Amino acid sequence: MNMKLNFLRKRNLFFLMATLALTVSCSDDDSTELTPEPTPEGDSRWITVAAARMGENPGDGNGGTLIYSVNSEDAKDPSVSIEPFDNGFIVPSNRTARLQSSEDGNTIFNISYAGETGGNYTKYSVEGGQNFAPAGSEISIAPYVGTAPRWIKLFDGDQTGAAVYVSTENVMDDNGTPEDETDDTYLRTNSSMAIVTLDLENSLIKEFKEHDLSLNDELEAQGYYIGRIDMPVLNAAGDKLYIGVNVRKVNPETLERERNYEMTGSKTIVLDYPSLENPTVITSEVGHGNTNGYRSINAFLVNGSVYQANQGDPEGSHILKIDADNEYDDSYDFNLDEALGVDDAYILAWRPAENGKAVVAYRHAGSAEGVAGAQGYFALVDLEARTAERIDEIPYDPDFYLFQYQGFVVDGSEIYVTQAPVGENGNIYVIDTETGDVTQGAELVNTEGSHFIGVF
């Protein structure tokens, strides 16, 4: 029997035939008529593959997001073939969906990104294959943080999500004449942060706060400001929330945004939790890149400390450490350039297991330029030893694009990833972080110009 996407055994023949009859676009009504896969038993869990369809350009992911779930046993089976672009569940989102999953893999959380449904929170029970049953009620966070919010699920037992947004405005003095405001002098750029926490279980707003953010006077006079924020994470005590920061710069003379400028020390906003009050900004003396990440979680609590990646560091990406005193530990110096023996390493996404070993998706100065951007790689990292080694058992291609990568599954010491060049087939791979062993898993069937953005 040729095990395509459905991979189902003979006992599920009815489900197989029903699925083959579906068209590419599957409605919620279609999925409710199918017989769902049984919940995984024993040590197995759901592995949900996420696929981003091309919009106008290869690899842009703007054509929508589709998901399809298999159990972990089949995810590790290279004879299984998965085709989410043909039979997946379409996740509501105008562009690439911002997905999160419960720790056990049984629930998918989504907040639509942009468009008419932008800012809508929905969640689904994972039932196998293309079956994702709506769970609970929908709620919009758009009134609080806009229709394209940056959001993340906090690691508090799947109870809370946090979404953030920042807007900016140049502040000028009033020395100019009413007829010629160009005589006004630039003072600083003010950054206004909005943050909302969301009860994921009951679909309720928990807290909402707005704050003005500032850097020191010297940096602000030069035009530096907080231009983007993302990736909140709780500290070990559960009383502080850390938010990653992207620092930008405007030319004080022309008010034009600068692109090439000296990076500041990596920064993080610290807020009281759950009140979301009393924002402060802490600065690393080790890293000099941004800490907001992009599509994937950028900071994690491991053994009582928060480990955070930075991006755009002129010395190559670092993994930074924030200790229980809610300050950067500048004695912890983990530079990926040095660890990997490359130049200009850039951490695109990463995920640690509880043992302090992590899988990092990255690019570097030697990456080939592919159809959608720079070629990506995976590395196995030891946070305590501060070592990193490229995972050579995973095949790499110039069109293997990881900039939009979102999801890793951690199951004990194992971490699941997806590998497929833009528009080409690939596989799930499972890395045993204790031994370094790599297992090639199920085939991922791609379609023209599209790519896979991870597993959940």
Description:
With 456 residues, the protein is mainly beta. The protein has a domain at 141-294. Helix content is 8%, strand content 39%. It contains seven helices and 30 strands. It has helices at 13-20, 28-33, 72-75, 84-87, 142-145, 217-221, 336-340; strands spanning 46-52, 65-71, 81-82, 89-91, 98-101, 107-111, 120-126, 132-134, 139-140, 150-153, 160-172, 186-199, 204-213, 224-234, 240-249, 267-272, 280-283, 299-302, 305-309, 318-322, 334-335, 346-352, 357-363, 377-382, 387-390, 409-411, 414-419, 426-432, 438-444, 451-455. A five-stranded mixed β-sheet has the order 3-29-28-27-26, with no helix packed on it. Strand 24 and strand 25 form a beta hairpin. The two termini are 28 Å apart. Residues 1-26 form the signal peptide. Keywords: Signal.
Architecture blueprint of SSEs:
Blueprint: H1 13-20, H2 28-33, E1 46-52, E2 65-71, H3 72-75, E3 81-82, H4 84-87, E4 89-91, E5 98-101, E6 107-111, E7 120-126, E8 132-134, E9 139-140, H5 142-145, E10 150-153, E11 160-172, E12 186-199, E13 204-213, H6 217-221, E14 224-234, E15 240-249, E16 267-272, E17 280-283, E18 299-302, E19 305-309, E20 318-322, E21 334-335, H7 336-340, E22 346-352, E23 357-363, E24 377-382, E25 387-390, E26 409-411, E27 414-419, E28 426-432, E29 438-444, E30 451-455
Parallel strand pairs: 3-29
Antiparallel strand pairs: 1-2, 1-30, 2-4, 5-6, 6-7, 7-8, 7-9, 10-11, 11-12, 12-13, 14-15, 15-16, 16-17, 18-19, 19-20, 20-21, 22-23, 23-24, 24-25, 26-27, 27-28, 28-29
